[in-house]
Amino acid sequence: MARARMVPRGGAGARARAATVPTIAPVSQPPVPNPLAFTAEGFVAACKAAPASGSGGRPLARPGALERYAAAFRVGVRVPGLVVAPIVREAREDVAEGTVVKFVQRLDQPGPGEAATFTPPDPRIEHLDIESVLIPMIGRTGRKTFTLCVSSQVGCAMGCTFCETAQMGLIRSLTPAEIVGQWWTATHMLGHTVSNIVFMGMGEPMDNLDNVLAAIATLKDHLGAAFPISKITISTVGRVDGIRTLAAKINEPGWHRLNLAISLNAPDDAIRDRIQPVNRKYKLAELQAALIDFPVYGGGKLCMEYVLLPGENDGEQHARQIAAFLAPINARYNENREKVSPRTMVNVIPYNPRRDSPWPAPTEDSVERFMGWLTGLGVYAKRRRTKGRDLMGACGQLGTAEIRKRKVVPLTTSARADE
């Protein structure tokens, strides 16, 4: 069995990294724009508006601003104004493909000009920590890559009973710079080349959609990180209003290849009402209609994440219900196509028990049996291999135990995702 190991911050490795990277500008200096909060053009405009952005207290001109921007994203230089949350903990677990790395960053208040949504402070919460996970993958060519699972909020208000993050409640949403900072940390502090980014960490991205989209705009900017948008996936529990807002965004130039994943997890409304409270507002029929209408560009699939819960959603009748739910989505996709192919892909995820979990992890036999039922019904399905379970870094396990002691914030599905 793979064993998780904690990695203390500091030591020779950290000192070596620190020695090669310039330090952050002193806090006493006037505010300077954080490049992680902007696209390249946005950063140029912010520097123009900030007198202290250049030397001698003068605005930084366009050439200097673009040079600073490229240095921050492509080289990893801590240019003036660049603020990234420090890593306070790391944990590692060896798996067949390499090493899973979970890193925890401690947040400060957002910087000038950065928008964030806050709940009232709770005196019992000493720190606001977010968790991100680097997951090693072996591609079809045999090349090892890393998928970065990023967080969009501290905690989550969705209340899914199988998820550790949901037990925290919602503390606040992350700013664009805090989201992009997770990529910057993985790339320039931990030294990993990230090939995929999935918004599957702490939080519901559709509850923070404006900031999530702003972060993606920054990540895909060709003058900065130049991250391919086809390698970015937003996952949602099923906020239909957010899905429809995202559909409109994907129709814009430069956004066509952004991927969507749905945490389905239940084949009918009765089960889904019980394990995913969002279903009490957005029933499966409404979710299905939004997915039928979701725009299609290229050959990207709609990913249906299905956490397998023993005795809850893992029966043969549940597999038949899933096939029935997906059939109209696939049918619409193939209406005018010469070659029939599935629009949806079911990603079967063996449940990773949270703290005080009401379910155990499923047995290997039950997972294989459920996969067999799905494929026998013609459903395109893949099984997600469990990685990071021992370090509480697997799907559904991210969360800060200390924050769980606070009062849980009520479900917030009444708010529109595009407001």
Tally of domains: 2
Strands side by side in the biggest sheet: 1-2-3-4-5-8-9-10-11-12-13
CATH architecture level-2 label of the largest domain = Alpha-Beta Barrel
The CATH superfamily of the largest domain is identified as Aldolase class I
Distance between the first and last residues' Cα: 46 Å
Radius of gyration: 22 Å
Number of strands: 13
CATH class identity of the largest domain: Alpha Beta
Strand content: 15-25%
| Main pleated-sheet profile | 11 strands, mixed
Looking at this protein, list some descriptive labels.
single chain; 419 residues; alpha/beta; TIM Barrel; 2 domains; eleven-stranded mixed sheet; two-stranded antiparallel sheet; 10 helices; 13 strands; 19% strand; globular
Walk me through what this model shows:
The protein is an alpha/beta fold and 419 residues long. The protein folds into two domains: 24-75, no CATH class; 87-405, Aldolase class I (TIM Barrel, Alpha-Beta Barrel), CATH 3.20.20. It has ten helices and 13 strands. The strands form two sheets. Strands 1-2-3-4-5-8-9-10-11-12-13 form an eleven-stranded mixed β-sheet. It has a two-stranded antiparallel sheet with strand order 6-7. Helix 9 (316-333) links the parallel strand 11 and strand 12. The longest helix is centred in the last third of the chain and has 18 residues, at 316-333. Mean pLDDT is 84; it is low at 11-30, 111-115, 387-394 and 403-419.
